[in-house]
Amino acid sequence: MKKLAVNIFALMKTYLISLLLSCVFFSAMAQQPAASDSASSKLYLGIELSTISYGMQNYATMVGGNFTPIVHLNAGYRLTKRINLQVGLTYGREKESGLSGIYYGYGDTIIYDHRSWNNYGIAVPLTIQYTPFNPAKRWNLYATVSLIPVIGEVNHQTTKTFEGETKITYKGHDSGIYLLGTAGVVLNYKISKRFEAYGKVNLFYKDIGHNSYYAQRAKSIGLGLNYNLY
After folding, report:
1. DSSP letters along 49-118, please?
2. Per-residue pLDDT tens for 191-200?
3. Residues in Cβ contact with 165 at an 8 Å cutoff, skipping those fewer than 6 apart
4. What end-to-end distance do the CA atoms of the chain give, in Å?
5. In the prediction, which pLDDT does 37 show?
6. In angstroms, how far apart are the furthest CA atoms of the chain?
7. What is the pTM of this model?
């Protein structure tokens, strides 16, 4: 039941982000051309909704987990008309516990297995965005690459309850700094001199220094809004 609820939540979150992206798209289409080019603004602040999950894996002990924050805060600097430098900040937590199995022991006694995990961390995406196209255009397409330090902690535990007595059968813990990398494309739209909206797709996900089956399959989408400071 919990697995079904998680799947439903993930589906609803993806649907919500897609719906918000559509709303921003149609709202932007209705805007009049901006009075001046927002590319002249050097500094900007932004907020982003994303489906990305940040992994924390110790390959020596095989203890690992992840967290999936929804909201990211960003601050950016336009190094040139075609290159943006950006730093982000987000916090997330994954916490769950529940019954993982029930089976019979000797003399029709019942054995209960439980498992729990508590993962949390802070991710700081360091991003470079580049466009080969005319930056003065209202619509623009950027290539984006991010190096992402993640500071976090992973806690796993399994227990067995038999005849009223509970014993810990496994306990896993790891904490530290994990390093990830992503790459993708960003479709940017200049709403006005101050505001820009964008949609992002991460097509590449890498656990730096290791090969991961999850990383080979990981894709994510994001929806964001930037505010130009000057």
Report:
1. EE---EEEEETTTTEEEEE--SEEEEEEEESSSSEEEEEEEEEEEEEEEEEEEEEE-GGG-EEEEEEEEE
2. 999 999 999 9
3. none
4. 50
5. 56
6. 82
7. 0.78
